[in-house]
Amino acid sequence: MTVEFFPVGNRTTAINALRFEQVDIVLAGPSEYVLMAERVGLAHLAARRTDTLSGGQQQRVAIARMLMQDAEIVLADEPVASLDPRAGREVMELLWSVVRERKMTVLCVLHQVELAREYGERLIGLRAGRLAFDRPAQQVGDLDLTELYQTQPTLETEPDEPSVVPTQRPAQA
User: Fold this and answer.
1) Which helix (H) or strand (E) holds 6?
2) Where are the alpha helices (DSSP H) in the chain?
3) Interatomic CA distance for residues 89 and 146, integer angstroms
4) Is the pTM for the entire model greater than 0.70?
5) What is the four-CA torsion angle of 35, 37, 42, 47, rounded to 10 degrees?
6) Which DSSP letter does residue 110 get?
7) More exposed terminus of the chain, fewer Cβ within 10 Å: N or C?
């Protein structure tokens, strides 16, 4: 099973967000919800509406939802884009911790190069919709990143800004 890592809706409590009421998935008993809320450090906020949670707390709910689905592959599209640096690092630490302990594969799109370098085993650089590089993180140098992010005057509009995609493979047992 593959699950997309995504923010939660705003009209439910944090604990109800784990129940997947809008999706036809049968889950374990209610205690499982509490365990997942505890795992991501939100048990004390489980009764609060998600629209009253901070961005980092909402991302933690999203990680708990991912855990409830018992996914093998996680697609995390800019999971820390709207967070301050401290909260972003906390969310990345939690996400990678979960990925390691569950031996999951994660494909994570980031524009924060320092986080991509720190967490990714392999980095994929995309520029103007084309592959700029795809190699182990330790083989991606400053020159690669400078070339990826350099701007060149052009009359054409380029699709999206460049991004670096860190990936992690499941740990070998």
Assistant:
1) none
2) 14-17, 30-39, 55-68, 85-102, 113-119, 142-149
3) 23
4) no
5) -110
6) B
7) C
